[in-house]
């Protein structure tokens, strides 16, 4: 009976020691996530995050710190913040998240081997972890807006507007927008895509449309004219 009590006491003490050890040794985790369409970010072998951003574009990174167990207070700070950058708290899906925002200027343009470095540090009273954000700032060239040639179509013909030949010298992703500048109003489908279509009016007319392409910082525009004629020998595209 005495040995049973001794074993029970040892079991209880072991459990208490485990709880104390866990309470004294929480861990903290740190994650970074790109927010926004413009920057290109890739993870580095040393767990850093490398991002490339063009002049005029804005880089936004969500930075989240998690403590295990979750009730342990966690502090999240950023060091080596460049000019024109901010690090602010927001609520995201019920959790407090720090958002790093940076819009570079010409003074921030970097050499390939010398990125701007921001260090994020998450701390508890028991543990700390840090990660680097390496920012490569590149000069930006405007995109090139190219439409299909002016065309003559028949009444009620389906007309295709194409921005397929548009490009960006830097290889940045492009956003497209079509606007009607003149002529009888038509319903334009796909006005914010690579291709737009509409149904030509019933009467002869001249319609002008403007394509605008943007890389998020710079933009370019090109107009295209569509002539509606009763006799043109046209066929639907």
The helical percent reads under 10%
Largest sheet, strands/sense/barrel: 5 strands, mixed
What is the strand tally? 15
| Name of the CATH first level of the largest domain | Mainly Beta
Unreliable runs: 4-23
Number of helices: 1
Indicate the CATH topology of the largest domain.
Immunoglobulin-like
Shape: elongated
Number of domains: 2
Query: What is the SS-derived class?
Result: mainly beta
Oligomerization status of the protein chains: single chain
What order do the helices and strands follow? HEEEEEEEEEEEEEEE
CATH architecture descriptor name of the largest domain: Sandwich
* Lateral arrangement of strands in the main beta sheet: 2-3-9-8-5
Computed Rg? 29 Å
% residues in beta strands? over 45%
Span from first to last CA? 95 Å
CATH superfamily of the largest domain: Immunoglobulins
Give a verbal description of the structure.
- The chain is mainly beta.
- It folds into 2 domains: 27-138, Immunoglobulin-like (Sandwich), CATH 2.60.40; 151-228, Immunoglobulins (Immunoglobulin-like, Sandwich), CATH 2.60.40.
- It contains 1 helix and 15 strands.
- It has one helix spanning 2-24; strands at 27-35, 40-43, 49-54, 59-68, 75-79, 85-92, 95-102, 116-123, 128-138, 151-153, 158-162, 175-182, 195-199, 205-214, 219-228.
- Strand 2 and strand 3 form a beta hairpin.
- The termini are far apart.
- Residues 4-23 have low confidence and may be disordered.
């Amino acid at each position: 009976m005495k040995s049973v009590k001794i074993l029970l006491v040892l079991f209880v003490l072991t459990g208490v020691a485990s709880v104390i050890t866990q309470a004294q040794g929480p861990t903290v985790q740190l994650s970074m996530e790109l927010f926004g369409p413009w920057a290109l970010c890739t993870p580095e072998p040393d767990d850093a995050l490398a991002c490339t951003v063009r002049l005029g574009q804005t880089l936004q990174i969500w930075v989240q710190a998690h403590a295990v167990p979750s009730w342990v207070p966690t502090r999240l700070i950023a060091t080596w913040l460049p000019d024109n950058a901010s690090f602010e708290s927001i609520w995201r899906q019920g959790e407090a998240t720090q958002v790093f925002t940076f819009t570079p200027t010409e003074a921030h343009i970097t050499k390939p081997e010398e990125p701007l470095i921001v260090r994020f540090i998450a701390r508890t009273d028991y543990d700390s972890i840090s990660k680097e954000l390496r920012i490569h700032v590149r000069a930006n060239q405007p995109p090139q807006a190219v439409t299909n040639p002016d065309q003559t179509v028949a009444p009620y013909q389906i007309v295709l507007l194409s921005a397929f030949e548009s490009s960006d010298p830097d290889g940045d992703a492009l956003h497209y927008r079509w606007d009607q500048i003149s002529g009888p109003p038509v319903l334009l489908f796909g006005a914010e895509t690579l291709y737009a279509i509409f149904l030509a009016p019933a009467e002869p007319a001249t319609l002008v449309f403007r394509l605008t392409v943007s890389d998020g910082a710079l933009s370019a525009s090109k107009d295209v004219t569509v002539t509606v004629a009763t006799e043109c020998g046209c066929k639907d595209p």
